[in-house]
Amino acid sequence: PAAPLAFTMLQVTRVSNGRSSFWGNATLGGRPSHRLEGHRLSQLLPLEPPAAWARRKEDVATYLDYFANMVKLIHMERHIEYTQTLRCRLGCCLFPNGTARSFYDMSLNSTAFLSFHVPTATWERRWPRPDAVATFAHQQLMKYPETTRDLQHFLNITCVDVLRAQSAQTGKQSGRSHTPLVVGLTFGCLALVAMAAGIFLCTGGSC
């Protein structure tokens, strides 16, 4: 059977000694579409016009700055020296029979941490044992529409619509412009911000 068409985004955040580093990429149909290196975000496929892309980059930079500043503040207060690595993987697949599947998974220090159940717009804990950090992060993510309903809409509708448009291309330009794929990265950053307090403040203290 034919392989599914996929849009996949990967974002890795590493925190050590109060400093945050970011790396990520996205692929559409197997082709690189976006790249994140530090705070530099690049669009490798012309999916958004220059003005819209400039706004998108600014939004993402704002979230990354917010997260990095929060980590610095927590480090100054708690002096947390060890390294934490958070990996977010999200996207959607369109199968030849027209069905689709969406996903959002997180791991912390290479261990499954949380996942997003798209049909119900709910986060589920994947940590292998009871843990205050995972519990607090889960509660924080469930508080905001950006990390529940909006994320569900992006994964179920926006992401899949882009794949359907990609699949239906017949050599002539569609009248509808591509929906901005990199909005998924924005949601990924929102999730990081929502989790930051849980991951770092719960460590050695009370949530």
TrEMBL record:
It comes from the Eukaryota. This is EPCR protein. The gene is Procr. GO terms for cellular component: extracellular space. One of its GO terms (biological process) is negative regulation of coagulation. It comes from Crypturellus soui. One of its GO terms (molecular function) is signaling receptor activity. The keyword Transmembrane applies. InterPro entries: Endothetial_C_recpt, MHC_I-like_Ag-recog_sf, MHC_I/II-like_Ag-recog. Keywords: Glycoprotein, Membrane, Transmembrane, Transmembrane helix. The chain crosses the membrane at residues 181-201. Gene3D superfamilies: MHC class I-like antigen recognition-like.
